[in-house]
Amino acid sequence: MSITVIVCTYNRCTTLAHALNSVAASALPTRLEWEVLVVDNNSTDQTREVVKDFCRRFPGRFRYLLESRQGVSYARNAGIRESRSDVLAFVDDDVTVDPEWLGNLTAALHNGEWAGAGGRILPQWTCSPPSWIPVKERHGLAPLAAFDLGAQAGPLNEPPFGANMAFRKEIFEKYGGFRTDLGRCADSMISNEDTEFGRRLLGAGEQLRYEPSAVIYHPVQRERLKRDYFLKFWFNKGRSDILEFGIPDDARWYVAGVPAYLFRRFARWTAQGILNLKPSNRFNTKLSVWIIAGQIYECYRMSRDANGKRGAFIEYRRQALPRKNYE
C-alpha cells in the first residue's frame, strides 16, 4: 500500500513549516511507500519557498503543486488528481500530528472493508478557554475544528472532519471529489465540503472508521476565542447547510422564498435568549439564533437568484438543488 498525505495551504507559511516538520517525523514501516503533496492554493507569502526547502531536505518525500483556483475544494481535488498512491490522507496546514498518526489513520484501509477513516482532532490551547465556550456540548468546539468521539475505535456514523481524514483513492474515482460550491475560499467561512463528502459515502452504504489513536493537535488561535468569531462561524454553518442540502421543501408557507417555520424558530430562540438569566446559556441560545439567521439568509439568496417567485422557485428546486459541483 502507498500513501499520499495531501496538505492544502493558503498564506500560512509559518504554521505550514511546523506542520510539515511534524508530518516528516511520522513513524511508518519501511515497506510502506508514502509522500507528502503540498497544494499551494495561490498563496502570496513564502509558501512556495518553504515547500521547496522541504523538497530539498527530504528528496522524494515532499512534492509541491500550485492550484490557482481559489478554494480548499479546488485544492483538495487537485491533490487527488496529482496523487500517486492507493490511500489519500488529508491534514490541515496549521496542525501538529502525532508520530503514529499517519500509520494509525491508514492501517485499516489496506483492504476493501473500510472506504475511509477519521481521527481525533484535539484543541491545543494557548490559554484557558473563556467560560462562555460550551466545551461540554457535543459540537461546542466545532468552531475550533475539534473532533473527539472518545477512545473507542469502531464504525463512524457521522463524517470525519477534513483536518484529519483518509480515504482509498478509488473512492474518489467512484463518487467524485469535493464540492467546489462548498469549502473555505480565501476569507469566506462557507464550509461543509468535507462532511458533505463523508455523508455522501455513508448515504451510499460505504463504511467509515473512527480511529482515536490517529491524533492531531489543532492550535486554538486567540482570534477564534472571541464571541464574534463563534457567531460568524455558526451563521456561515447555517448558510453552508442550505447550500449542501438545498432549501427545505417541507414547508406549507414561504416568505420571500424562505420557509415560514424558520422565522418562527428564529423568534422562539431569540425570546429564549432574552429570558435566559444565565450568561453562558444566553450565549449558547444566541448561537442557535445565528445558525437560523444563516439559513434564512441563504434561503432568501438562493430563491432570489431563482427570481424569487413561488411557482418558479419550486420548479427551480426540483431541477437544480442541491448543487453538486464535484470534480
Q: How many β-strands, per DSSP?
A: 11
Strand content: 15-25%
Structurally, the number of domains stands at 2
Total DSSP helices: 10
Helix content: 40-55%
Cα-based radius of gyration, to the nearest Å: 21 Å
**CATH A-level architecture of the largest domain:** Alpha-Beta Complex
CATH domain topology of the largest domain: Spore Coat Polysaccharide Biosynthesis Protein SpsA, Chain A
- Averaged pLDDT: 91
Full CATH superfamily name of the largest domain: Spore Coat Polysaccharide Biosynthesis Protein SpsA, Chain A
Helix-strand sequence = EHEHEHEEHEEEHHEHEEHHH
CATH class of the largest domain: Alpha Beta
Largest sheet entry: 9 strands, mixed
Structural class, judged by helices and strands?
A: alpha/beta
Structure, explained:
The two termini are 25 Å apart. This protein has ten helices and eleven strands. The protein has 327 residues and is α/β, with parallel strands linked by helices. It has two domains: 2-222, Spore Coat Polysaccharide Biosynthesis Protein SpsA, Chain A; 227-320, no CATH class. Strand 10 and strand 11 (258-259) form a beta hairpin. The strands form two sheets. Strands 1, 2, 3, 4, 5, 6, 7, 8 and 9 form a nine-stranded mixed sheet that branches. A two-stranded antiparallel ribbon has the order 10-11. The radius of gyration is 21 Å and the shape is globular. The protein has helices spanning 13-24, 47-57, 72-82, 101-106, 169-175, 193-203, 227-245, 260-275, 279-305, 310-320, and strands at 2-9, 33-40, 62-66, 87-91, 96-97, 116-124, 154-155, 164-168, 208-219, 254-255, 258-259.
